[in-house]
Each structure stands twice: as C-alpha cells, then as structure tokens.
Amino acid sequence: MVGKYHNGNQLRVDFQVHLHRSNYGLDDVLAHMEQIELGAAGILSYPFENEINFPLSKAERYELVRGDRVIKATNKENGRRLYLFLGKELESSDGWHLLAIGTKIKYDTTAKRPLEAYIEEGLANVEILILDHPYADPERGFADIPKKKERQLRRIAEKYGKEIAFEWNGYSKPFVRKWFASRILRAACSDVNVKLENLAEEYDLRVIPTSDTHARNKRLLNGIGVSFVTFPVSTLDFSDKTTLNYSIKAAIKSGFYGTDKHYVSFLHLFEAWWPNIRSKIKEKIVKH
Ligand SMILES: [Zn+2]
Fold it and tell me: What is the pTM assigned to this prediction?
C-alpha cells in the first residue's frame, strides 16, 4: 500500500540512532533506511537537547511532516512512508542512560534527576522508555556496573519491569569489550547482553535490541538497523502520532513483537569509537 512503509506485514524499528549534524543529510539517512527496509528509527539527541539535532529543511527526496513526537517522511517518487521518532538519551543523576522515545517534554538542561523521576515523568507522558545498556556503566567508561548498581537495577526491574523496556546493545561486542577491559580500562567488561538476557528471564522483562549507531560520518550510517524490533502492522495505529506511540507501547508491554539481534561490524565500531578510545589511551599515558 502506498503511504505505508513496511516489510511485508511488519514494521521494523531501530530505536537508537545518534546522528551528527552537517556530515550528511536526512535524505541519506532515509535512503539507507529504505534500502534495508527499516520503517522507523528513534533519532536521539544527547543528553539534554530538546530539539532534533538536525536540519530538516535539507531533505529533498522526501516530504517531511513534523509532529511533536514523530516525523513522517514520504518518498516523493515511490510514496513510501518512514517514521523518525524524536527522542532523547537521558543521563540520570544516579548514573543511568534512559531512552525517552516519542517525547515532547522540555527537559531542564541544568539539573539531572534520578532515574526513577525520569521514568515516572516519561510514563505519565506516553513515552516509550528503554533503559539502555543497563549492565554497561556510563560512569565507568562502560565497564561492568558495580554490585550496588546491580541491586538498583534489580529494584527497577521489579518495580517497572512491566512498564519500561531494557536494551540489548548492538555496540557491546563481547570480544571488543574484553580487549578494552584488559588493555585500556583495567576493569571487568563482560558480555553485558548475556547478563541482560538472564535478568530478563528472571523478571519477565521486555528486551529491545537497538543498534546504538553513532554516525559521525556518512559511512557510519551503515550501522543503522543492524539490530531492530518488528511489530505486526495490524497491531499498530498510524492514524496520528500519539496513537502510534500508544500502540507501540502496548505492543511492547504485551511482548507482541519480534527481535533481531546483531552487532555492528568491528570496523564500524572502531571508527565510531576511536575518539573515545584515543582519549582513554591518553588518560592512561598521563596516569603512568
Ligand atoms: Zn547510552
């Protein structure tokens, strides 16, 4: 059907994509999505920007209609429709990352708040909430979380396990984490996705795989959609942007979706993370 874009009867969604301004256009992002039959992506500003960090006016091959939670893009030639969810990767005061997808909250950029405060607010505002890379600690260079944080994670799983989802992360390649742990960080970096799967089984959690692509340049757009979820189109309501958020939330809650879990390639990961790796190496040299 012209106007809807999906792969058969499935809508594929990669909820975590970080774009970088000015290195390519939204046309390039949407063309890549079409090529891999990804019908929707979460475009995240980080950590506190309220606006999508991207010049929308530059898209030429797609007609864009911006709602307050989602941008609808229609290919002018073939009529295919794609969706870009507006979102944020929030950084809480207690050291967690939370994806707030389809958000319209104006977050205070000067004061971080605890994770539970963001969860409560997001739930009240029909956001799709995903606790991303829960076992990789952003406060410790993405090494494993300490025991105290694991206890907190279990409390969150118990309290909000039916309301929010938990992310399987496409950047957390086990052998790269191992190398990073032994050579650079000197802290344990285990397979965080396996740990998440175990936790999910224990608490009956909803796991959402995302690519977590950081596309600093056009080539790195190839990470988009390596991991994704699929929703049966019949369960979604596209009539307006709020109903799309509602229906996706409901599908996640009921567990009525498929998952496709893959890691980005080693070359992608190395190129995307090189600035971070370099700064860690420099830190290490300075310390010694
Ligand atoms: Zn993160």
Answer: 0.91
> Are 87 and 110 a contacting pair, CB within 8 Å?
no
Residues 6+ apart with CB under 8 A from 37: 6, 7, 12
Q: How far is the CA of 113 from the centre of ligand 1 (A)?
A: 16
Q: What's the pLDDT score for residue 49?
A: 47
Ligand 1 centroid to residue 87 C-alpha, Å: 13
What separation in Å is there between the alpha carbon of 210 and the centre of ligand 1? 11
Calculate how far, in angstroms, residue 95's C-alpha sits from the geometric centre of ligand 1.
10
**d(CA 138, ligand 1 centre) in Å:** 7
Distance 47 CA to ligand 1 centre (A): 9
For the chain, 288 residues long, the average pLDDT of each consecutive 10-residue run is: 59 92 84 95 67 63 86 92 90 94 76 94 93 95 94 98 97 90 82 97 97 93 96 86 84 94 95 80 66
Structural domains present in the chain: 10-287 (3.20.20)
Ligand 1 center from residue 3 Cα (angstroms)? 33
pLDDT at 25: 85
Please state the separation of Cα 209 from the chain's center in Å.
Answer: 8
